[in-house]
Every structure is written in structure tokens, then in C-alpha cells.
Amino acid sequence: MSNTETLGPFPPSALSPASSIDANSDTEFDKLIEHQTRKSELIKKRDALARKRLQLKEETNRLNAILSKHKQHKLQQETKKKLEFFLHQNDHESIKLSAPDQAANFVLDNLDILPSFDYNLRRGLSGKFYPNMRVDDIKTCSEFLNGARTHLLSFTVAGDGLPSLKIEMKVCDEIVIDLTVKNYDQISSNLQRISQSYQKGLLLDYIAGRKLDLIMSSYNSLAYIQNERVSVFYAIARRYIAYVTHPPSALKWQDDPLTCFLCLPFIQLTVESNERQYNVKLHWSLILAKPSIGKIDSKVRITVLNEQHEPLEGANDLFLRLLSEYGPEKAFHLILNNLFNI
């Protein structure tokens, strides 16, 4: 029997260890190649997907930019349409408002509370509100200053017994932007002698603050009381002409009392009684008592001095009590009548 025959039914390959190892190696190598091929395909697919993702992202960004641009353009178009609509509406309203309005014209012409530029009318009305003074020499003109229309106005305010005020002012948008009294330097000394407080208030408050209303009201108030003072002084001087020692007769106050008594702060009488001589003075000061409204008040008092310049006690207290009831002229007369029987 041969060796082949003694091995029985097993195939030769099963009986060879070397051939079995070779077969397993081939199988593993094939699997490795298959895995490597699959890995390579997956890597290529991944890279392709990554490129596709990047392309899609770029496309998305591009489309978003286009969308944003379209939205902005649409918004601009809508804004433009709204603007055109509002402009059209505004033109329509402007045309409507610019049309003559009889009711509005009536209000502006008759019920307007703003200062009128009809200065002749204002001049006539000023006499009703300020009866103790007058407004003369009104001159007006207009100019453009810094692109705004400016009104230039000059006029003279005058009152009996007072130096006149030559006023110049500039008005823009109903606001006084400049105000001067051109002749202030020439009249300041007289104003100071008439009323020092008024002269100071006029310069430092009213002119500096461009307060035309207070210039007018205070001047009117000063003119009223100044006229009263001059009238009383003149009446006393005429009644007691034989006793008047101030102002002296050399001033010829009988001919021109306004000029003589313009800056006179007192009037003096010299009276003899019981062989003694007395100087009786009626002092009258004008004071800017209420600067906020331009009100001038009087401060009136009396002094009675003997030859030794000693005051007669109680004379002024009695005069002040009589003053509140009878006024300065009659109170002064009652004092003289009771003290000296004149």
C-alpha cells in the first residue's frame, strides 16, 4: 500500500500547514485592501461634502447679502414714497394755510397783543397810558443783520419839567437787542439833581437791561411827581413871595418857574416872629421806590430853624400828619399859619 492510500479521505491541502497559512494571509490582505479602498472613498466623499458645504455656505452668505440689499432698497423705496406723500400733504396744507383767512386777519388786525409796527398809532395811544409825557421825532427803518430783519427805531420822550430822553433801539423778532439814550451824558447831571435814585436806576437797570417799558413808565411817573413838586413850590413862592429867600429873586422864578424849580430840592422862607428869625424849609425828594414797576414816590418833610440853627421840635411830625390829610401845599400853609400867623 502506498502512502497516499494510507492517509484516507483527507485532501492534501488540509494536510499541509504551509498552504493553510498562505490562504489566510491572502484573505486578510484582500480585506485590508478592501478597507483601504473604502477608507479612501470615504475620505474623498468627506472632502467632497466639505467642499459642497463651503460652497453652500458661501452661496447662503451671497443670498443673504442680496436679500439684505433688496430689503434695504425696498425700505428706501417705501421711505421715499412716504416722504413724497408727506411733502405732497405739506404742500397742500401750506397752500391751504397761505390762503387768505378773514377770521385770522381780523384777529391779527384787531386782537393781536404783540407790539404793532404802526408807530403813529402807538404814539397816539401812548398819550392815554402816559399822560404826563409825549413821544416825538419818531424815525424808523429796517435792515438785515446776520440774516434777520432788524427794525431800527429812534424817538424822543419829553415831559414838562424834565430833560428829554433821546432813545435809539434795535428790535429783532419782537426782542429789543440794543437800546441807548443818546443824550444821557448831557442830561445825567440834571437827572441826578432831580432824583439821584432814578438817575442811577435808569442807567444801571433800565438802559443796561434794555427795559423800554420801565423807561417809559418811570419817566411818566417822574414827570407826574415833578410837575406836582414844581406846582407846589411855585404856588408857595407866589403866596409867600415876601418871605421867599430860596430860590432868590435873581433867578426870576416868576417868569420861568419850570426852569427855576427844575432841580430845586427845597424852597425856603425866612420869617420873623417875636423879634426872632426863623428859616422854614420845605424839602421834597423824588425817589425810585419800586424799580420793578418804575414807580416814583415823594419824600416830603419840613424843618424850622431859629437863628442858632436849632430845630423847632415837633414841627415835622405835625406837618406829616397834616400832609396825609391835606397834601403838601395846604399842610405847609397850616404850619405857617399856626406858628407865625401868616
What does the secondary structure layout of this molecule look like, with pairings?
Elements: H1 3-6, H2 17-98, H3 102-111, H4 119-129, E1 134-145, E2 148-158, E3 165-172, E4 175-181, H5 184-194, H6 196-207, H7 212-239, E5 244-246, H8 257-260, E6 266-273, E7 276-290, E8 295-305, H9 315-326, H10 328-340
Antiparallel strand pairs: 1-2, 2-3, 3-4, 5-6, 6-7, 7-8
Helix pairs in contact: 5-6, 6-7, 7-10, 9-10
Can you list the strand order of the major beta sheet?
1-2-3-4
The major pleated sheet works out as: 4 strands, antiparallel
The N- to C-terminal Cα distance equals 199 Å
How much beta, percentage-wise? 15-25%
Low-confidence segments, given as residue ranges, are: 1-10
Give me the Rg, rounded.
Answer: 56 Å
Structural class, by secondary structure, is alpha+beta
Give the SSE order as H and E letters.
HHHHEEEEHHHEHEEEHH
Count of helix runs: 10
Q: Report the strand count.
A: 8
Instruction: Give the integer mean of the pLDDT values.
Output: 84
Helix content: 40-55%
Region (Disordered): 1-22
Protein name: Kinetochore protein SPC25
Organism: Australozyma saopauloensis
